[in-house]
Amino acid sequence: MIRKPGPEQRIIRTALPSEAPVITALHTRSRATYYPDGIPQDGTDWLAAWRSAIERPDGHVLCSVSQGRIVAVASFRTPEGSPTEAVKLFQFHVDPDHWRSGIGAELHAACVEEWQADGKKTAVLDVHVGNRRAQAFYTRHGWVPDPEHPCAPGDHHLFLRYAVPGE
Question: In the chain, how many domains are there?
Fold first, then answer.
């Protein structure tokens, strides 16, 4: 658990299975900001997906809590078939009411700390092509286009890579 001093009393910690409904709601609010025509309904049961992510023994779900409320969440793990020194950031969401408050940067730093502790060398993610805010955030934090997965015409996601700093 990481505590951030200040009047907001923010902490970053591992999410609990009982928090899956709150995290699902945050995820939905965040995604709604970059789908101008509404969030695509692809049949995903996001509550079950978040419960599964939280309960996976090989994964991590970190959340940022401010004044007793979850305001940001990140989910990552080594994808099946990938080298053990790789990690994928599957989800990273900050409640839109808390954008530009530093919470995203703090959560990203906590992810990087965990990746370093776990011996990860490379992180990857994909970001929706219409989510310019997230793309700018990732660029500021050192993410670059993934040369192994260039964006092709018609792709809905950009693939980014991050070199996890060594000790």
Answer: 1
How remote is the C-alpha of 80 from its chain's centroid? 18
How many residues can be counted in the chain?
167
Domain coverage including residue 105: 2-163
Which residues make Cβ contacts (< 8 Å) with residue 97, sequence separation at least 6? 71
pLDDT tens-digit map of 117-157 = 999 999 999 998 888 899 999 999 999 999 888 888 888 88
CATH number of the domain where residue 85 is located: 3.40.630.30
pTM beyond 0.85: the answer is: yes
Question: What is the rounded CA–CA span in Å between residue 157 and residue 128?
Answer: 4
DSSP 55: H
